[in-house]
Amino acid sequence: MMLSSTLLAQAPDSLVRFNELTFYSEFERETFKRFQHKDVDIFALLMSNGSLLSDVKIKEGRDRFYDHVTIVGRETAEKKTGKRIKAIYDNLHSKFLMKYELKNRFEEIFYNGYYNCVSATALYALAFERLQIPYSIKEEPTHVYLVAYPQDERIVLETTSPLAGYYTLSDEFKQNYLQKLKDQKLISAQEYAMQDVKTLFDKYYFGQNTEVNLQQLAGLQYLNDALYKTEDKKHEEAFTQLEKAYILNPSQRIAQLLYYTGAQTFESRKEKDSTHAVLLSKLSRYTDLGVDQEMIVGEFARATQDLLFVKGKRDQYEQYYRILTRSITHQKLKDDLAYVYNYETGRLLYSQAKCKDALPYFEKTLFLKPNNLEAQGLFLASLAQTFNSKNSNQEIIKQLDDYNAKFSNLQANNHFNALRAMAYLVQFNMSYTTNKIAEGDKYKTLFESLATQYPDISINTELIGQSYSNAAVYYYRKGQVSKAKQFLSTGLKYAPNNYELITRQRMIK
């Protein structure tokens, strides 16, 4: 099988994105950058997760390897297929592979000659690629090996014993991995109880005998490196290696490992910092593996409680929210997170009597969840408090009318209707007091319309009495007794027991 240079297409909801990868050397960064732009250099990708060789030494190793392969290819060109493959195998093994080592990276072949089945298989595949010898790479639960001429001759090349050529995972890792799958309901409770750990792990981790290409093999090397780090409890470093493994080999198995390791990394990180936010954002993409939006929102709510209300770190909370949401593409999840952020920030400011500052946050909650009564309640409480600092009742009326047009759901809230009625009533009273009769009648009509439409709203009866009494006095002094009586009668309709209205009504009978 010749090398595939197909580049992983990255949709916005891809589990891994290039701009989020963590690199440990400039060589690795540049190699992946070229890969991203479809300049696929497999030798460099195999070398990129190491740290033993400088750029110069890597180039020297590459040149030495390919020069030798060219010579071996020329020297064996006349041999029959089977004998040629054996000659190439023996020559490369003698020249480059000095000592088997279980935990191994490809670069070590060129550093000290140490190898394992993955790195050695990669070496032979590179040689066959250069010599245009057909091959395929097979991966089994405990082994990776190469088959030359897979369509006819099927010559198997074992770089190590099948029983000792592949890194063996610990029982603890296998048990935890299967438990995650069971929690996600990818394994039924019955199957989990009926089969042993090894059988289940081989089935769900490895699947069937798999054929991989060289690019995917480079991904498997990153996967192995992640497993080494997992065994050492270096979950965060393991996660970063698995992300690169997935870029090179976007298989379901690596996706499951990504989720498993990402969840472990997230759970082990107690500090609610930017890294914690990045991890939570990434975990939100694993919807196919059992992560739902409520889990993400719940974790953000816990971070909110810790940063805002326990530690009082509002700036850090703002940063956490920005980092968490900047790469989330699912709109409903973004809206749910925005609701928590705006509601809780507004609640914090309200508790600090900073109602003017809280109001914009509560407005956003009403856009997101217009029917939420808790959000409406805090919004209206903050709004009412801000009226204490306003010098103009007309300004209050305009603000209330604007909110009425903007948030139609508030019309079902009698706290809001009471605020509007109160503002109209105040303006009705003020207008008659300053002889602006037409204006006063306008706001009297608005008040009465609202009070009639919502008869159960609670309105200050003293203000009703004062407003209608002032209007009655105005018309009484004008000699319009009948009209004065009409105002007093109407006022008593909205405040039946108001002392001032009753008294004035008796006086002008």
From TrEMBL:
Keyword GTP-binding applies: no
Organism, scientific name: Ohtaekwangia koreensis
SMART domains: TPR (SM00028)
Keywords of this entry: TPR repeat
Domain of life the protein comes from: Bacteria
InterPro entries, per database record: TPR-like_helical_dom_sf, TPR_rpt
Ribosomal protein found in the keyword field: no
Repeat region (TPR), residues: 465-498
This protein's name: Tetratricopeptide repeat-containing protein
